[in-house]
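Hi team,

Below is the intake form for SpdD protein from Streptomyces diacarni. Please confirm the fields before the structure is written into the shared record.

FORM ID: S-0412
PROTEIN: SpdD protein
ORGANISM: Streptomyces diacarni
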Amino acid sequence: MFLRPQLPETHTPNLPTTAQQMHVPACGCQHSAPLAPPPRSLPSVGSGAVAAVVVGGVVLVAFLAAVVVTAVSVAVAAVVLRSLLGAQHRRR
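The structure came back. Fields below:
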């Protein structure tokens, strides 16, 4: 159902890691190899998070559109009232 990227499988020979290459005891006794940090995985973003961001964006755009429409209608009403009141004062 959900799309997840998959890396292609690659066949590489078993080469020693850099930690194994660097650890060469000079004394000949058995030393344990230093522990390498575990490989980091990329953070995954769930489809729920993407949907939440999209829905939030749609709601914010709709709210902004409502504010713009209200502001324009108030401005038009103010201009109409001003012209009506101005015409009434000229008649007197």
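SUMMARY LINE: The radius of gyration is 35 Å.

Thanks, M.
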